[in-house]
């Protein structure tokens, strides 16, 4: 049965934090390289092959081969009964997807970008996320909602929002966001196999990037656990959390910080909900400093939740205030120079890390 | 020849009934007589883009008596729920179906449990028609463990997956795309079954309905959209909400049928027709002309936007239970006393179920954290004060 623990916390909650086991595995150095696009495509292919209940639905996923070519070749291989081109009616086709999941099929619904998911958000939240609870377990919803999330390049305010914080706040949903090809393969496979509704937030600018993958990752049975973050780079001086594209920026920032003698630990969240609080807290207890990085709007964002978690669980371990790097608190502008200011850059992460290490000059007054 | 058969069989069944009821004095007079009886529906069907089913319907004593009993049970259940709500044993929202029983009962008679039904929040009677028990209804309404959703759903969230009843939805109109999704899955699995997606005249104007209907027509899904037109979307009369309140025609390229929703035999006939149509030709719309005696919910008296004369008028002229009573009596299938005894029996069933439900415990506190996920992965969830209440999701 469930264990609900009622604890009066005096000081810190030591029992709940397990030491983070290093997730770094050493792969063979003669690794193959695949793009994130290839990783997603092969995962969809393998999961459709393994389970006839899995089908794809979305705009242009079939004959157009996918707006971003993620579903390329799948219509030819699996036929129009399993790869369905929909009209531009998100509320309608998302509801249809959720209904199919109620019946026991395993739909993978693509949003051309997650900005369009707002048209269907009632079905994601009220029809999908809450059904298992409201029906006391009778109606589970094994559906995946996937697509590009967050900023692209020059697409303007209506096409650039990050939805991680909104979806991750909702109990009943699982929210995943891959960074590299290994993440893309492992997390998408896990999402499709999972019996609950999963929001799978990809990134358009990462689709074409190549990453090394081991044979284990390329195996069709590969999957990654949901709810576990990965320590991409071990360090001792400051913890940097990030997800999706920002992981790459955080790693670059870590290289720059290394030259200044600051040894940063970079955590790739992979899973926004469930959030791997124990890995994050264990890391902060080691480094005593935290920078959260995300592309999305700052207010009520992912970083705010991580900061709260660390303040609740590891307050005594913090040697500096938690720093938060996020997208600017404005709708995304179009002009290239303004767009650059609206999204975190590597230098922002470096500067914040130095502040947390008390290595920077006190803030000058800004406009 | 049918007529003489009718006359002789009815008196035979009448005698049989009398001997049955005297032999088993506590049992209801459900006749087992299945001799066909031919009846005409109250009004002919009106169609849009399809042929019209015959208004001549085949039935029998057993079926009619079952209809009477089922509708009387539902009527009694909803009235009892009204009292429980006023006694504050039911909280929140409570949307009652009395007046509309013929739709739930007639539909069920036309289909099997392999077919799927999905509806909105006025779902108590649909749940019963799908095989739910009175105890599950009352316990759920009162938030107890024996409820069909173990007390976690409430009035608007009844489900019975093993009978292909998919709820029970609180967001107006959302159930229609969901229902089309069920139909998609039935076709995908080659189940040779259909889905009935019920919605009201208020929901009939929802955009997502037309989005789902478009896809259903494109993909030939076995979806039957049933507009339960009780003429009022909450407090707004249909003519104030819809430029075209001919809901059976609103599908445009999708055929539709207008049905007297207060005539259980007409409902059954229409649903039989619709199922056959949907399996061959894709989606169809059924508009059930029906009426709710209660207001939209228990917080709505239902008399500020319609006259009491209108309500009593419908009750006198078109009540579905009374219609079947008259039919049974005119065909001599049971006596008035036998029908009254049936009503007494269902009343007792309802009262017993309420008494049992009142004794039933509320959910255990640990149930706050169950069923958040089908697979909780051992993650933590939190109460209002997370330093005080935490749980591991299984």
Automatic annotation (TrEMBL), chain A:
<comment type="function">
    <text>The pyruvate dehydrogenase complex catalyzes the overall conversion of pyruvate to acetyl-CoA and CO(2). It contains multiple copies of three enzymatic components: pyruvate dehydrogenase (E1), dihydrolipoamide acetyltransferase (E2) and lipoamide dehydrogenase (E3).</text>
</comment>
<dbReference type="InterPro" id="IPR005475">
    <property type="entry name" value="Transketolase-like_Pyr-bd"/>
</dbReference>
<keyword id="KW-0630">Potassium</keyword>
<comment type="function">
    <text>The pyruvate dehydrogenase complex catalyzes the overall conversion of pyruvate to acetyl-CoA and CO2.</text>
</comment>
<keyword id="KW-0560">Oxidoreductase</keyword>
<keyword id="KW-0496">Mitochondrion</keyword>
<dbReference type="InterPro" id="IPR027110">
    <property type="entry name" value="PDHB_mito-type"/>
</dbReference>
<keyword id="KW-0670">Pyruvate</keyword>
<dbReference type="GO" id="GO:0046872">
    <property type="term" value="F:metal ion binding"/>
</dbReference>
<dbReference type="InterPro" id="IPR033248">
    <property type="entry name" value="Transketolase_C"/>
</dbReference>
<keyword id="KW-0479">Metal-binding</keyword>
<protein>
    <recommendedName>
        <fullName>Pyruvate dehydrogenase E1 component subunit beta</fullName>
        <ecNumber>1.2.4.1</ecNumber>
    </recommendedName>
</protein>
<comment type="subunit">
    <text>Tetramer of 2 alpha and 2 beta subunits.</text>
</comment>
<keyword id="KW-0786">Thiamine pyrophosphate</keyword>
<keyword id="KW-0809">Transit peptide</keyword>
<dbReference type="Pfam" id="PF02780">
    <property type="entry name" value="Transketolase_C"/>
</dbReference>
<dbReference type="InterPro" id="IPR029061">
    <property type="entry name" value="THDP-binding"/>
</dbReference>
<dbReference type="GO" id="GO:0004739">
    <property type="term" value="F:pyruvate dehydrogenase (acetyl-transferring) activity"/>
</dbReference>
<dbReference type="InterPro" id="IPR009014">
    <property type="entry name" value="Transketo_C/PFOR_II"/>
</dbReference>
<dbReference type="Pfam" id="PF02779">
    <property type="entry name" value="Transket_pyr"/>
</dbReference>
<dbReference type="GO" id="GO:0006086">
    <property type="term" value="P:pyruvate decarboxylation to acetyl-CoA"/>
</dbReference>
<dbReference type="GO" id="GO:0005759">
    <property type="term" value="C:mitochondrial matrix"/>
</dbReference>
From TrEMBL, chain B:
<protein>
    <recommendedName>
        <fullName>Pyruvate dehydrogenase E1 component subunit alpha</fullName>
        <ecNumber>1.2.4.1</ecNumber>
    </recommendedName>
</protein>
<dbReference type="Pfam" id="PF00676">
    <property type="entry name" value="E1_dh"/>
</dbReference>
<dbReference type="InterPro" id="IPR017597">
    <property type="entry name" value="Pyrv_DH_E1_asu_subgrp-y"/>
</dbReference>
<feature type="domain" description="Dehydrogenase E1 component">
    <location>
        <begin position="69"/>
        <end position="364"/>
    </location>
</feature>
<dbReference type="GO" id="GO:0006086">
    <property type="term" value="P:pyruvate decarboxylation to acetyl-CoA"/>
</dbReference>
<keyword id="KW-0786">Thiamine pyrophosphate</keyword>
<dbReference type="InterPro" id="IPR001017">
    <property type="entry name" value="DH_E1"/>
</dbReference>
<keyword id="KW-0560">Oxidoreductase</keyword>
<dbReference type="GO" id="GO:0004739">
    <property type="term" value="F:pyruvate dehydrogenase (acetyl-transferring) activity"/>
</dbReference>
<comment type="subunit">
    <text>Tetramer of 2 alpha and 2 beta subunits.</text>
</comment>
<comment type="function">
    <text>The pyruvate dehydrogenase complex catalyzes the overall conversion of pyruvate to acetyl-CoA and CO(2). It contains multiple copies of three enzymatic components: pyruvate dehydrogenase (E1), dihydrolipoamide acetyltransferase (E2) and lipoamide dehydrogenase (E3).</text>
</comment>
<dbReference type="InterPro" id="IPR050642">
    <property type="entry name" value="PDH_E1_Alpha_Subunit"/>
</dbReference>
<dbReference type="InterPro" id="IPR029061">
    <property type="entry name" value="THDP-binding"/>
</dbReference>
<keyword id="KW-0670">Pyruvate</keyword>
